[in-house]
């Protein structure tokens, strides 16, 4: 049931994005290549062979996009720094890119001038390509020191103004999609080992960066360092079945617990160690494919988060499913479970993102119970649609936001310590291996137009009302928000249609007319030559 009420005073409302997905300018002003530049330039890796080379042209539109943030009336903006933009090879001693550093300085200053708090992620997946080629990226322990050097440079250059730092955004996807399935950059399929090894190095890196901030920068800068973990909720298919309940628990531990458990408790979840260890032994391996932390490392890693960032999009039903002994190992068969969805759950866009708001409250309560009720910022939550047409009247996004934000309100009443919410995302943008086929934005971006204009969807007006009211005051008011938001989008649709027509006319003017003129000129010359020859 829907709960009408408001959030505590001082609750932070924001919106987010990431560097590779929006900035573009992939090789401009001294930026080095990232693994995503390399990956997308290979045919067949991304739907439609699209790339983020230009993306939303965010590199050139900072001032414009900050105006959109002002229009949304958000308190904060979560964005990521591109490591190769400020350190082209990823190695501090080799080269720094002053133009890249200036770009982020200007962005941070512009945000603060407009009373918008910057929340900065140091890593949203765009590893410098040089580090991948030289060392194998996150498979190599040397990444710990290279990343710490990069993080310290960011603290040095921006830490006087940035007080909320995220070390890694969704490291689960970095490890599993980058080094297990190969769906994401760097595209490696190191089944059963690659993801665990990458995650192991990422967790150690996170801890070292936290300690570095704690020892060197905290007393002067007074900021916070956390990590952003993305996880769906796993609900047992049959809540009365012990095997299904255990399978649902494993689902959460193999996603969220994989990273949260070491940070909050000092080691991997017991169930992960048991399952991966047993499967490794069945394969005749001398040691587990899941690496181990030494006693000193466990102590060093435990407690290294001032807040926990949570990304959450959807829920799955989970049941026990035993996989037979396989010679080929895989993260996906290690946890002995199967995932199901309810066909009645709404799914507007991609088939992985079903709207199941009640799962969010359960996930937040799980975190409260498991990890000692840590300070939580919701760092990613939103829904996408497919790119067909121009869906500015995004009623399903408003319903999604209403449902999921309401579950946070219920979780707050349960005693969960949530301080802020970041909707995902500000703009339609490059969606990794799905290219531009999925759109998460509050603002529609016309990628066919060379100027990449932005148009507000109905959800802009709706989210703005939630922020202004700091929640959901009463039924009548919330229904009014919905009606007014739908009214505004029809006007914007007309504007978009007019602009598209103008852009089409401009293309005709810029390309077709000069071509026709050239052909006419050539034809005239040829006819003139014939005429002169004949006479």
Q: Ends: how far apart?
A: 92 Å
Based on secondary structure, the structural category is alpha/beta
As a percent range, the share of strand residues is 5-15%
Number of domains: 2
The level-1 CATH class of the largest domain: Alpha Beta
How would you characterize the largest beta sheet? Answer: 8 strands, parallel, barrel
Cα-atom Rg, whole angstroms?
A: 25 Å
Helix proportion: 40-55%
Overall average pLDDT: 94
CATH topology of the largest domain: TIM Barrel
What is the number of strand segments?
Answer: 17
Across the major sheet, the strand order is: 2-3-4-5-6-8-11-13
Low-confidence stretches: none
What is the approximate shape?
A: globular
What CATH architecture of the largest domain would you give?
Alpha-Beta Barrel
The total of helices stands at 17
**Fourth-level CATH superfamily of the largest domain:** Glycosidases
Structure in words:
With 535 residues, this protein is an alpha/beta fold. It folds into 2 domains: 5-473, Glycosidases (TIM Barrel, Alpha-Beta Barrel); 488-534. It has 17 helices and 17 strands. The protein has helices at 19-22, 35-40, 62-72, 83-86, 98-113, 129-135, 143-158, 171-179, 194-221, 242-265, 270-282, 295-301, 331-334, 358-370, 395-413, 458-469, 475-534; strands at 5-6, 12-16, 76-80, 117-121, 164-169, 224-230, 233-236, 308-311, 315-320, 337-340, 376-380, 385-386, 418-424, 438-439, 443-445, 454-456, 471-472. The strands form 5 sheets. An 8-stranded parallel beta barrel has the order 2-3-4-5-6-8-11-13, surrounded by 5 helices. β15 (443-445) and β16 (454-456) form a beta hairpin. α7 (143-158) runs parallel beside α9, α14 packs parallel to α15 (395-413) and α15 packs parallel to α16 (458-469). The longest helix has 60 residues, at 475-534. It starts with a strand and ends with a helix. The mean pLDDT is 94.
């Amino acid at each position: 049931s829907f709960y009408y009420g408001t959030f505590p005073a001082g609750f932070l409302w924001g919106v987010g994005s990431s560097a590779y997905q929006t900035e573009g300018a992939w090789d401009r002003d001294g930026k080095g290549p990232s693994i995503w530049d390399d990956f997308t330039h290979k045919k067949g890796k991304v739907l439609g062979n699209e790339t983020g080379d230009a993306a939303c042209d965010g590199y050139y539109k900072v001032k414009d996009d900050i105006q959109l943030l002002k229009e949304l009336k958000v308190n904060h903006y979560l964005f990521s720094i591109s490591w190769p933009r400020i350190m082209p090879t990823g190695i501090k001693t080799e080269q720094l890119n002053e133009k890249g550093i200036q770009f982020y300085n200007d962005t941070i200053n512009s945000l603060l001038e407009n009373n918008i708090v910057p929340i900065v992620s140091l890593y949203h997946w765009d590893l410098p390509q040089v580090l991948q080629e030289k060392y194998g990226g996150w498979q190599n322990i040397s990444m710990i020191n290279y990343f710490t050097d990069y993080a310290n440079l960011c603290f040095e250059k921006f830490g006087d103004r940035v007080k909320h730092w995220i070390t890694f955004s969704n490291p689960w996807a970095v490890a599993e999609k980058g080094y297990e399935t190969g769906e994401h950059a760097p595209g490696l399929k190191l089944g059963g080992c690659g993801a665990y090894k990458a995650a192991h190095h990422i967790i150690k890196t996170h801890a070292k960066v936290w300690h570095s901030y704690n020892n060197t920068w905290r007393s002067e800068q007074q900021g916070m360092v956390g990590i952003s973990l993305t996880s769906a909720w796993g609900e047992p298919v049959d809540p009365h079945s012990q095997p299904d309940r255990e399978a649902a628990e494993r689902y959460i531990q193999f996603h969220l617990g994989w990273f949260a458990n070491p940070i909050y408790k000092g080691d991997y979840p017991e169930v992960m160690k048991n399952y991966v260890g047993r499967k490794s032994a069945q394969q005749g391996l001398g040691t587990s494919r899941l690496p181990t932390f030494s006693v000193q490392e466990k102590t060093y890693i435990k407690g290294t988060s001032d807040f926990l960032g949570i990304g959450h999009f959807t829920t799955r039903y989970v049941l026990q499913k035993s996989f037979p002994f396989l010679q080929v190992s895989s993260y996906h068969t290690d946890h002995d479970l199967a995932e199901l969805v309810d066909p009645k759950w709404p799914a507007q866009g991609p088939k992985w993102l079903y709207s199941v708001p009640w799962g969010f409250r359960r996930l937040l309560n799980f975190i409260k119970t498991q990890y000692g009720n840590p300070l939580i910022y919701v760092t990613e939550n939103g829904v996408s649609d497919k790119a067909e047409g121009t869906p500015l009247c995004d009623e399903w996004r408003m319903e999604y936001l209403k449902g999921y934000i309401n579950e946070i309100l219920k979780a707050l009443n349960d005693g969960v310590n949530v301080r802020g919410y970041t909707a995902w995302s500000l703009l339609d943008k490059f969606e990794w291996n799905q290219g531009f086929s999925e759109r998460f934005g509050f603002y529609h971006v016309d990628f066919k137009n060379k100027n990449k204009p932005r148009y507000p969807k109905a959800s802009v007006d709706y989210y703005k009302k939630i922020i202004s009211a700091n929640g959901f005051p009463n039924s009548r008011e919330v229904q009014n928000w919905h009606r007014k938001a739908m009214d505004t989008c029809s006007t914007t649709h007309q504007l978009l249609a007019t602009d598209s027509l103008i852009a089409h006319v401009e293309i005709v003017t810029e390309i077709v007319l000069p071509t026709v003129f050239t052909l006419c000129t050539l034809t005239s010359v040829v006819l003139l030559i014939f005429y002169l020859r004949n006479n």
